[in-house]
Structures are given as structure tokens and as C-alpha cells.
TrEMBL record:
One of its GO terms (cellular component) is cytoplasm. SUPFAM superfamilies: GST C-terminal domain-like (SSF47616), Thioredoxin-like (SSF52833). Residues 94-212 form the GST C-terminal domain. Pfam families: GST_C, GST_N_2. Transmembrane segments: none annotated. CDD domains: GST_C_SspA. This is Stringent starvation protein A. Residues 10-89 form the GST N-terminal domain. The lineage of its organism: Bacteria, Pseudomonadati, Pseudomonadota, Gammaproteobacteria, Thiotrichales.
Amino acid sequence: MSDLPITQRSVMTLFSDSKSPSSHRVRLMAKEKDIPLEIIEVDTSEGMPEDLLELNPYGTLPTLVDRDLVLYDPQVIVEYLDERFPHPPLLSVDPISKARSRQMLRQIEQEWYALIDTITQSDDEKEVKTARRDLQERLIQMIPVFEHQPYFMNEEYSLVDVSLAVLMWRLPYLGIELPKSAKAVKDYSDKVLAREVFAESLSDDELDMREVI
């Protein structure tokens, strides 16, 4: 790791939570685009490091530092990276398709990832059970979308697929089992998780969520 202050380093720095889907999404996106990225895994159980709090007063993860630019909104981070490193593009240039993708990204972040947080962090057994059922039902409701095109709402792999891949990886860990009628979801999951760079994006904690890749 460089001795230079983070805001003076030539390589971008990502403060990452090793278990968070939001942080994993950024790590996976960086692998898909072959973006040079220095990753600092933060152990949230020990509190936030001072250098992070100096950069991000909210102390939230992920936080991306690109010289004097500090980003800590997860969706802003991934959209910035897609524009900063345009190849391969992970968001459509078509305004309508792009708007639909951005809306779906927001839904995944605010609703689906929030359910993951409840399942993994809540001490209320009833709340966990409800969140597990809600996430399962949302995936089942989306079966027609998974069936319609090779990727989610798209003919090509996109940022929405990046966001869903990290969720798919966590399903067994979350105790979510899909019915046989959700074959399209299972096939989709197998496809996005089989991408070579996916394994490279996993933290040690995420590797532990499954016995094998």
C-alpha cells in the first residue's frame, strides 16, 4: 500500500465491506472493466477508520476515492465508474433503456439489498423470516423478466446483472431456496456466476458464504 495520502494516489481507492452486496457490486464491476483499484477492507465491527471518516463524514461503505473526488453513494459510484471507464459499457447509451436500468438499480439497492441486510443483521427472528420470504417472492415475481432476454432486461450483460450477481451468490447463505418453477432464475444465476471475473471479485468472507465456487 502506498504511503501517499489517499487523495494523492494515482490508483483509485475503494473502502469496502467484505460482506456487503453494495461493496461487492463495485468490486465486481471493477473486475468486469479491468479497473485498477486499491481495495481497503474495513472491519465494521471495530468501527470506521479515521482516514475514512475524514473523507466521508457519514462513514458509509462503499466509499470510492479518485484523487480529490470522494463518492459514497453506491449508485453514483457505479455510474461514475461506467463513464470514467467506458469499455465495456455496462449501461446503455439509449436514454429509455438507460433510465429503466437506473430505476432497476435503485430498486435493487434500496429494496433488495435492504432485505439482505435485514436477514443478515436483524436479531428479530420474525423480521428475518419476513425479509427472507419477501426477497424470495420478489425473485419469483420477476420470472417473466428472467425468461424474456438472455440477461436481465437486456440482450447484453449490464450493470443490472452485476448488481443481481452479487445477490444470487448470497441466496444459499441467506437461506433462500427457489421453487422448481423458478428455473429461469436458477439458469440466470448459473450464467452470471460462471463469468470468470466473478470469482476474482469475492472477498474471503464472501468465499465462505459457499463451500465451492
